Amino acid sequence: MIIGTYNPITGDHVRVNVPVTEEQILQWQRGTPSSVVFSHLKQWERDIILSGMSDEEWHDWETKVEEAEVGATAQAA
Length: 77
Description:
Layout: E1 2-6, E2 13-17, H1 22-29, H2 34-37, H3 43-51, H4 55-76
Antiparallel strand pairs: 1-2
């Protein structure tokens, strides 16, 4: 099934083809934990469904946040 979501950092629309059914999506939307419903998926596939961000995008974002925090700390000193 092709899942459409968006990346909250870039605003980009993200489409990924993952082996899930419409019923599994509905179970997740009704509150069943993603780790239960999507236990057959790889972690990166679950991450894309949940956040709209790939592992690489998460890493890039975390690096930028850390750099900004270091810069802010250096300016305050």
